[in-house]
């Protein structure tokens, strides 16, 4: 629902379709009458569907409604996972043992549900052999093929080659 609902005197329509506090339809009535119905029950008149003709208004406790809404929003935020991009940096002439260490780190990041950015850093004249970097990227993708999908193919950006891996959907949560 939108945050800025019009309430009570802010409602500009001449007549509204009124819904009671229990959700019962009270029909189309003039705004003054709707306001007095809400006032009698010491509740607010809240415009819940401003686009409708005539606008739909409901008799409710607006403060309580806003509180409930905030609680629902907070719950929804708690449940969502923020996907971070973790980076693993390698050099083109990396030793096997070091490669495996980096690959296991990437595996751990993917296991946590994060994306992994594999960066091959070229120094000096190493950039003249981008094929070495590509081989390394593909080797990493092959090693992580169980946990990850290649989201972005290896691509040279300046003095680096970058590839992005995303975790596969079939996780056992």
TrEMBL record:
> Which SUPFAM superfamilies does the UniProt entry name for this protein?
Translation initiation factor IF3, C-terminal domain (SSF55200), Translation initiation factor IF3, N-terminal domain (SSF54364)
Sorted alphabetically, the keyword list is:
Cytoplasm, Initiation factor, Protein biosynthesis
**Where, subcellularly, is it found?**
Cytoplasm
Q: Does the keyword ATP-binding apply?
A: no
Q: Per the database record, which ranges form the Translation initiation factor 3 C-terminal domain? A: 83-167
Q: Which InterPro entries match?
A: T_IF-3_C_sf, T_IF-3_N_sf, Translation_initiation_fac3_CS, Translation_initiation_fac_3, Translation_initiation_fac_3_C, Translation_initiation_fac_3_N
Name the domain of life this protein comes from.
Bacteria
Q: Which is an annotated GO molecular function term of this record?
A: ribosome binding
- PROSITE patterns attached here? IF3
Q: Which GO terms describe its cellular component?
A: cytosol; membrane
| Translation initiation factor 3 N-terminal domain boundaries | 7-76
Q: Into which family does the record put it? A: Belongs to the IF-3 family.
How does this polypeptide assemble, per the annotation? Monomer.
| HAMAP family (UniProt xref) | IF_3 (MF_00080)
| Annotated function | IF-3 binds to the 30S ribosomal subunit and shifts the equilibrium between 70S ribosomes and their 50S and 30S subunits in favor of the free subunits, thus enhancing the availability of 30S subunits on which protein synthesis initiation begins.
Name by which UniProt lists this protein: Translation initiation factor IF-3
Lineage here is: Bacteria, Bacillati, Bacillota, Clostridia, Eubacteriales
Q: Which gene encodes it?
A: infC
